[in-house]
């Protein structure tokens, strides 16, 4: 993983050559982390056998010359990773860099280029830990930069366009992808190959962006960014260990017992249906909860929300329900909540009901 934060400035940012028109443009920082949007393959027809994160941010921006008419862009190469390998240490680096940049008067918003595999997790983490109402917009691509009809350049242009709009302020962290604008809390990856790979299945996108026009059709209701109490610590090793287990036909308790023995602080269950759990796994989880391990019920279904069962089950077992958060986002919130000192099922349930 490269995390050198090498920076460059697009020519429009040179104050000695700025025209009056360019001075009026929003000032956007583009932070590159790698991913398919920065991937390359041996030939233009190859959209699966590519290497992610090998194209630098300067080359990504050069492929979109119309950016100069949308914003004054400052760019940094924060990392060059395949997002399947996203790590807590890089989350720390990225979150701290975002907050540092947003604290500067000369920055109006931020765009982050990211791999699609873990984009929804990174976006939700930042949604809860960024401390500014300035726009932060993540974008990505399903096809590498070398592919025929690569989707990265237009997604990048649209993301910068959204980040420069006043309407995007106060909406928390956003994802601009395939002309749609999503809230970080709602968005999930729904396809392994389609360019229309990101959706907000429960309540839909926030709005859309096309040909320079941005329209929000609803706003974000739950607290985020400045209204969130969560913050990123200085070292990833301080984060509590939280893992995910699944429930399925014939599931055993081996994974739960192994995680408890390893000292895990929290477990998120990707349950069936309404977060239901195989009886064998539930017994193991109840024993873990009695030992102080936080247990969160989520669902593997892909949409909908997990309802709290109350005294009949969750209250008696000490479980927390994830609401509409999928297991991977529930893990992010549980880590942040535990790190902030929330420990009891009652307190943790309040966190999940709020954020």
UniProtKB/TrEMBL annotation:
Keywords: Hydrolase, Signal. Residues 27-219 form the L-asparaginase N-terminal domain. One of its GO terms (molecular function) is asparaginase activity. Residues 1-21 form the signal peptide. CDD domains: L-asparaginase_II. It comes from the Bacteria. Belongs to the asparaginase 1 family. This is L-asparaginase, type II.
